[in-house]
Amino acid sequence: MPRCLCIVVVVALLTLLDAIDPLQCDVFDPACRARIQAAGNGHSVRHRAQNKCQYQDIWLIPGRADASCTRPDAKRLVDIDPRQVHIKPAVVKFPGCFTVEIRNVRVHDSSEVLSNSFFAKSEYQWLNVKEFSDVKCQNATNNGCGGYGNNCYYCDICESLRAIDKNGDSEGFSEQFRGLNCPRKAGYYTFRKEFCFNDWTAFDADGDCQMDFLQSDKSDYKGALQSLQQIGYGTVVAKIRMAYNATNAINNKRSTKEAQIEATVMRELEERRRNWDINRGQFEKFQSWYIEYRKNIWHREEYLPWLLYENEISCLRVTFDVCERVPRRKPYGGAGYTCD
């Protein structure tokens, strides 16, 4: 379970902040900064090509985690103590590496959890850009699962982990999750892993120095990020809502609902067909597509939000200060760092 949570947290960081090139030392150490500067002359051809895009470095100051977003009557099948969630180092540079550690996560002895998978939803709120909380998930499947960015559902985390292990040619970001799996026994778990991101190709596949998901005129992210560039990055709040997947009883209800949708669509199309000049083969092909289309709309807009609410087990809230330059230590002996 802690491993499932970590996947969503890491995907959140990746998709929200782009990024990344390994950083193996303390950015506040002058010797470290000298190493980074010297290393710039020895990078690969691909990295030099990316440098021409002049992507801006970003620094994150992780704040405290809390569980204030967990609804009061959530099913307490997994206990996560927010005080045991740690992101290191104290300042994370992108491009760079960071370590996520989640200690003493208690998985209860419940067949609903141990025999099931998990799914989650990622939500972001940029405190100084109101519209950012409303942007839609990018590149999700037709039924609303997967994708990257805000308001995304990750519908079967455990199966995704198994697929990474089974697929021997996994590359890039997904490769970093190889060897992870979901718990099968009750008890206490601790997760600790370092994640590094090496290039921008996941977001700029054509190398034109523009993030691919910002190039559509219909992209909600384009307007939101333009606002951020004008007023400064500020503070982002990430919420990761966790739930266990559908039980057999819920799956049966879902199948019943999908059958009702199919029957309704078939009746509608039979009525409309009387005025259509198409042959039987064309009609059946369209009918099959339209039935699946209507099922996907229901799954995406009604089923997933309901299932998340019904089976919620925890919600983790983490804040990050996002800086455009190297943060400095707080003055007058204060603990931590500041963007100012």
TrEMBL record:
Signal peptide region: 1-19
Record-linked Pfam families: DUF7753
Top-level lineage group: Eukaryota
Domain DUF7753: 250-311
Keyword entries, A-Z: Signal
Protein name per the record: DUF7753 domain-containing protein
